[in-house]
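Lecture 7 notes: from sequence to structure.
We start with the chain below.
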Amino acid sequence: MPAPAPHPSSPAAAARWDSRESLSQRLRAVLLAGEPRAKVMAARRVARDWRRGALAWDFSAAMPARPAWPEALELLPPGKMPKRRRGGSERGRIALWHALAHIEFVAIDLALDMAGRFGERQGPAFVSDFLQVAAEEAMHFALIERKLRDLGSYYGALPAHDGLWEAAAKTSHDVAARLAVVPMVLEARGLDVTPSIRDRVRAQGDESGARVLQRILDDEIRHVAVGAKHFLAEAQRRGEEPAQLWQTLVQQYVSGALKPPFNDSARLAAGLPRHFYAALA
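Predicted structure tokens for the same chain:
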């Protein structure tokens, strides 16, 4: 459960509240942790500490303009990334798992930044939801990084693109835009492509890898649902029709059309019905 209400009424309660560690300071510290294992452990710890009420409802610490990532990680524009081969060679498998690791690593920061940047206005339930998302993304990264290690590689061994954080930077001023673009476009895209990747990995004889991808798919349905739930609530607060607002924001902040095929059933399970996105395909 989330921490208690942020404005205790008695002086004794206020003193207890003030003695707790600041939520925003902890979030900022996790975002600025660049070593992968340190970020994973810190993300899971901040979510756990929030659930047990150990963090104060304090947003005095600003979120950084961008998080820290491994020093060895080479970032390239999306258009400059090397093309991945779809074969089952060891090099191809490493490239696949490295790309997935980068997505999950950045997803940790996206969820933490969502909670720290917008949580004060959106409320404790919003913070609780996105800290839980961050903890699950950290678990996903740990599973994928273990696959990389089994293949004799590690996160940071290959280049990665910066497109995910670019989307966050563009929407840092507006919670509705961030929700529309990150959970409801970028993470929803994972619902579309993960089943085929899972099946390809299974066909290569990697059953454990297929199970990891199925676990991620199941969790990502919930993550998109979290984004959709809070987007609908924000649209209601603004007096806007949700699908129309979503389409306007996507057209404003996402380059190009949304690419089919779509996993309509998974998207619907996540609270993203087809009439939202079909017109933009």
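Points to note: The first strand starts at residue 21 and ends at 22. Strands lie at 21-22, 55-56, 75-76, 160-161.
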